[in-house]
């Protein structure tokens, strides 16, 4: 039988996981500056299996607008270059011996607006996930009251605590969305 503190702890940890997933999503959304995490989604063929670039090469920043990709093995350069070029990121890597330079093209005003819309949309999805966790936690507590293992006072207290956690996490999402929008709109 689960207890109210366990329900609250479970809801809290799932909300924290939702925030982590949202932060991970934000790293993949492009801003005007180069970010090595943008290549995390690109898969490259390596001895017959598909692997993320970070598994077959060192990915670093050369400067604010250029990512460098240094393959761990000779001969992987062309495969990595092809994988980046064919990804839907719109990047055009340039080979310099073993090193690949991936310049980030400057974003147009229209593209910046699209990106801010995407950030807001992802933020709204994260808020919905948090609210769903709140609903689930409250339903668990109500079930305990119905089964007579908790009182109405326990229910009210638990709902208040879960609401506080929900408000805190939603405020954190709003702050992350705002910061990412500022990052995107900064030229």
Automatic annotation (TrEMBL):
<keyword id="KW-0963">Cytoplasm</keyword>
<keyword id="KW-0648">Protein biosynthesis</keyword>
<comment type="similarity">
    <text>Belongs to the RRF family.</text>
</comment>
<dbReference type="InterPro" id="IPR002661">
    <property type="entry name" value="Ribosome_recyc_fac"/>
</dbReference>
<dbReference type="GO" id="GO:0043023">
    <property type="term" value="F:ribosomal large subunit binding"/>
</dbReference>
<dbReference type="GO" id="GO:0005829">
    <property type="term" value="C:cytosol"/>
</dbReference>
<dbReference type="Pfam" id="PF01765">
    <property type="entry name" value="RRF"/>
</dbReference>
<dbReference type="InterPro" id="IPR023584">
    <property type="entry name" value="Ribosome_recyc_fac_dom"/>
</dbReference>
<dbReference type="InterPro" id="IPR036191">
    <property type="entry name" value="RRF_sf"/>
</dbReference>
<feature type="domain" description="Ribosome recycling factor">
    <location>
        <begin position="22"/>
        <end position="185"/>
    </location>
</feature>
<comment type="function">
    <text>Responsible for the release of ribosomes from messenger RNA at the termination of protein biosynthesis. May increase the efficiency of translation by recycling ribosomes from one round of translation to another.</text>
</comment>
<feature type="coiled-coil region">
    <location>
        <begin position="141"/>
        <end position="168"/>
    </location>
</feature>
<protein>
    <recommendedName>
        <fullName>Ribosome-recycling factor</fullName>
    </recommendedName>
</protein>
<keyword id="KW-0175">Coiled coil</keyword>
<dbReference type="GO" id="GO:0002184">
    <property type="term" value="P:cytoplasmic translational termination"/>
</dbReference>
